[in-house]
Amino acid sequence: MSPKTRMIEVRQNVLKQNDVVARALRERFHEAGVFVVSLVSSPGAGKTALLEKTLTLLRQQFRVAALVGDLATENDAARLARSQAPVKQIITGTVCHLEAAMVQSALEGWNLDELDFLFIENVGNLVCPSSYDLGEDLRLVLMSVTEGEDKPLKYPTIFNSADVALIAKIDLAAAVEFNAVVANRNIQAVRPEMTVLDVSAKSGEGVEKFLDFLRSRRNAARAVAASQRAKAFAAPD
Amino acid sequence: MHELSIAMSIVDLAQEEADRRGGVQIKAVHLRLGLLSGVVKDALLSSYEMACEDTPLQGSRLVVEEVPVLIFCRQCDAQRPVHSTQMFCCSECGTPTGEVVQGKELLVVGLEVED
Ligand SMILES: Nc1nc2c(ncn2[C@@H]2O[C@H](COP(=O)(O)OP(=O)(O)OP(=O)(O)O)[C@@H](O)[C@H]2O)c(=O)[nH]1
Ligand SMILES: [Mg+2]
Ligand SMILES: [Zn+2]
């Protein structure tokens, strides 16, 4: 420090704007009773394929909708719309991840009270989305069997920021000599006790189990919200 | 690569702080960067220079203090450094844990200014 300079202490979170919006979204989601699930993965790991299947099947029982982020195209929204669920594309342009404000503006005009599940497909990218809270209840990281078992070790931050890991395209496991033991060990190394589920959007293997998992997580979240409401009601002012 | 947009946020945030303090000139911005923040130090440093161009912060430095990851180890009943970001277990006793208590920070903590 040269003699003329002095130090000012500050304490400001660089991502504060995103965090503020994400917190507001999370509150809105909870009030509306919609369970929000985001999906992250490398490009092409199978997010849209799994989501199309998920929307189609969950729609029979729940009110579901999806937002999908992409740098440039509307392809994924068009694929997801085949499920008949409400879908909106978020075109991010040069931005390599979704931010809470993009989710917020995409939801303008939507009545969240009319939804049970909202899915958010992030831009295919295992790096950038990890820093941005979107207000979701659950973050899924997909890793397809064709990517190699070492992805968790190469991208520990995103695996660490996620709640659940899905091993996707499990129908191709034998063809690519996928080593499930090594993959699981690597996932647990960067996120001990993480739930890991195998799925194939193509053959349908593991999809029912995945849907059960989503339903039970939603029920658990609703139970917590109900008991919090009861407590708030019972507490004297 | 989201380091440029992070760098731009840092520049905006620092300038706001400077303006609130009566338009001091910023010579350096001090940042605490968690190893789990998802931001790469070298990429951020070069993005910072770009983000400062044509702003009052042009020519200023970004001083990055990297913050190690700490986990809460139930076995030790204490906060401990993580073995590595590829191996989330207690560096003392080896118990695996995902309970991160430090390492996600992306905080501006100080400004070196000239009046
Ligand atoms: N065999 C097999 N192929 C799959 C499966 N899921 C997806 N694919 C194929 O993998 C390719 C990429 O799938 P997408 O669903 O577009 O992947 P994505 O993660 O949404 O891709 P981006 O949004 O571009 O990042 C497509 O050719 C799919 O048909 C699966 O379970 N099994
Ligand atoms: Mg997709
Ligand atoms: Zn320990």
Overall body shape of chain A? globular
Look up the CATH topology of chain A. Rossmann fold
User: Which value, in Å, is the CA radius of gyration of chain B?
Assistant: 17 Å
What's the architecture of chain A in CATH terms? 3-Layer(aba) Sandwich
Query: Over the alpha carbons, how many angstroms does the gyration radius of chain A reach?
Result: 19 Å
Average pLDDT across residues of chain A? 94
User: What would the CATH topology of the domain at 2-68 and 102-113 in chain B be?
Assistant: hypothetical protein PF0899 fold
Helix content range of the residues of chain A, please? 25-40%
CATH superfamily of chain A: P-loop containing nucleotide triphosphate hydrolases
CATH class of chain A equals: Alpha Beta
Most strands sheet of chain B: 4 strands, antiparallel
Q: Class of the domain at 2-68 and 102-113 in chain B in CATH? A: Alpha Beta
What coarse outline of chain B follows from CA principal-axis ratios? elongated
Taking the alpha carbons of the first and last residues of chain B, their distance comes to: 35 Å
Q: Briefly, what is this?
A:
Chain A is an alpha/beta fold. Chain A has helices at residues 16-32, 47-58, 75-81, 100-106, 151-154, 156-161, 180-190, 207-234, and strands at 6-13, 35-40, 64-70, 87-91, 117-121, 138-144, 164-168, 195-198.
Describe the structure.
The complex is a heterodimer of chains A (237) and B (115). Chain A has 237 residues and is an alpha/beta fold. Chain A has one domain (3-234): 3-Layer(aba) Sandwich (Rossmann fold). Chain A has 8 helices and 8 strands; from the N terminus they run E-H-E-H-E-H-E-H-E-E-H-H-E-H-E-H. Chain A has helices spanning 16-32, 47-58, 75-81, 100-106, 151-154, 156-161, 180-190, 207-234, and strands spanning 6-13, 35-40, 64-70, 87-91, 117-121, 138-144, 164-168, 195-198. Chain A starts with 5 loop residues before the first strand and ends with a helix. Helix content of chain B is 26%, strand content 38%. Chain B contains 2 helices and 7 strands; from the N terminus they run H-E-H-E-E-E-E-E-E. In chain B, strand 3 and strand 4 (78-84) form a beta hairpin. In chain B, helix 1 (3-20) crosses helix 2. The relative contact order of chain B is 0.25. Chain A binds chain B through residues 1-2, 4-17, 95-97, 127-128, 130-131, 153, 156-158, 160-161, 188-194, and chain B through 1-2, 5-6, 9-10, 13, 17, 21, 24, 27-28, 31, 36-39, 85-89, 96-98, 100, 106-115. The complex binds guanosine-5'-triphosphate, magnesium ion and zinc ion. Magnesium ion (MG) is lined by residues 47-48, 76, 121 of chain A.
